[in-house]
Amino acid sequence: MTWTVAAAARPILQLVTDRRRHATLTGPASLDRIVETARRAAEGGIDLIQIREAGLADRDLLALVTRVLSAVRHTAARVLVNGRTDVALAAAAHGVHLPASAPVASRVRRIVAADFVIGRSVHSRAEAQAAEADGGCDYLTFGTVFATTSKPADHTIAGMPTLQEVCTAVRLPILAIGGLSRERMPEVAKAGAAGVAAIGLFADASAGDAQEMRTIVDGLRMAYATGVRG
C-alpha cells in the first residue's frame, strides 16, 4: 500500500534541514552533517525530511538531495525539497515543500506522479483555506507557533489559539512549526495538528546516534498521544 500523508499515523514528524545550525562547520563538512542527521533521523523513525538549503548552487543542492536519498533508502522516510520541484524531480525525491510565496500547488500536481508529496507553508487561516481550495497539497505547515532561534526576535508568533483555528478551518493535515518541544506536543495534539515540523528539535541530536534520535522521536509520539487522550 502506498504511503500517503493523509493516511499516515499521527503524529507526522518532519525534520527540516538548515546547515546554519552547524556553525562550527563550513563547506562540505556542513553538508556532510546534514546527510548524517537525515540518516539518523530516518533510522530513528522520522516520517519526512525537508531539505531546505537556500543559497546552494543548483548542482550542489542536487548532489545533497541525491546523497540524502541514498542515506535513507533503507528506511520509510520521505525526502522533500524546499521550493525546487525541478531539483526534486531530477533527484527522484519523494516530493516538494512549497514556501508561502510559491505558485499554487495545483501547477506542480499536474506534472508529477500521483504519489509525489506536496506540502506548503501557510501563516494564516486565509492562506490555509486558499491552499486547500487549490487542491494540490497533501499537507500544510503552519507557524511560527512559538518563538524560535530560527527566526528574528521580532518575528510574528502565531500562538496556540491560532494554530487551533487553522486546524479547525481546513481538512488538510497541519504540521505545526516553530519552537516545538516534547513538552508542547500535548498542546499541539489538542489543537488538532497532525504533527510537527522542526529544525532544532532534531538537528541538536545530529552529533548522536540513531538510537538517540529514536529516543527523541518516541518521546514526541508518546507526548502527542497524551494530548490526544486528554
Outline the secondary-structure elements.
Blueprint: E1 12-16, H1 28-43, E2 48-51, H2 58-72, E3 78-82, H3 85-91, E4 95-98, H4 105-109, E5 117-122, H5 125-134, E6 139-142, H6 160-169, E7 174-177, H7 185-191, E8 195-198, H8 200-203, H9 210-229
Parallel strand pairs: 1-2, 1-8, 2-3, 3-4, 4-5, 5-6, 6-7, 7-8
Architecture overview:
With 230 residues, the chain is of the alpha/beta class. The protein has a single domain, classed as TIM Barrel. 41% of the residues lie in helices and 16% in strands. The protein contains 9 helices and 8 strands. Strands 1-2-3-4-5-6-7-8 form an 8-stranded parallel beta barrel, surrounded by 6 helices. The longest helix is centred in the last third of the chain and has 20 residues. It starts with 11 loop residues before the first strand and ends with a helix.
